[in-house]
């Protein structure tokens, strides 16, 4: 059975975005980007909320057309375009780039999706993650802890979600100081 896998970057003090949606604090260098590519290319689909999808769709469809883009960025543009995507949104009219819009998270439908053959399902977007957690649908968290203190912003795990006992299955330190913490239920 496929797993629902959260892929999220977080500051050391627990924020997935800084004030005003700021993500400029992310420490994504070539090593980390190549790791992301290797992890995400094996997925069966990307599951995103509207905000995460729109953020990705604003950049990745044509990122490989810029000759100044590093090889890892050009590679990920192809991965993102080709990967099937499910966008959970009540307001988005349509989505391009191999994406399907679904209006609500239906736990039975998600379980059916997990039972299909193929790679794991990468879940992106903190609000969608919270919804999936409330329905007990998340199987694994790959949290990339960046060595920065933001002091404020949006916390990755909101109050009221949990408790959930997790088991650490992998940790890895990247050259730029980012630490991967991979937990499973």
Labels describing this entry:
alpha/beta; 26% helix; single chain; 185 residues; 8-stranded mixed sheet; 27% strand
Describe the structure.
- Helix content is 26%, strand content 27%.
- The longest helix is centred in the middle third of the chain and has 12 residues, at 71-82.
- The protein is built from five helices and ten strands, in the order ββαβααββαβαββββ.
- The mean pLDDT is 94.
- With 185 residues, the chain is an alpha/beta fold.
- It has an eight-stranded mixed β-sheet with strand order 5-4-3-6-1-7-10-9.
Q: Order of strands across the biggest sheet?
A: 5-4-3-6-1-7-10-9
The percent of residues in helical segments reads 25-40%
Query: What class, by secondary structure content?
Result: alpha/beta
Percent strand equals 25-35%
Helix segment tally: 5
Let me know the largest β-sheet: 8 strands, mixed
Draw up the topology in text.
Blueprint: E1 4-11, E2 15-17, H1 30-40, E3 45-49, H2 50-57, H3 71-82, E4 85-88, E5 99-102, H4 107-115, E6 121-124, H5 126-134, E7 140-146, E8 154-155, E9 167-173, E10 179-184
Parallel strand pairs: 1-6, 1-7, 3-4, 3-6, 4-5
Antiparallel strand pairs: 2-8, 7-10, 9-10
At a glance:
The protein has 185 residues and is of the alpha/beta class. It has helices spanning 30-40, 50-57, 71-82, 107-115, 126-134, and strands at residues 4-11, 15-17, 45-49, 85-88, 99-102, 121-124, 140-146, 154-155, 167-173, 179-184.
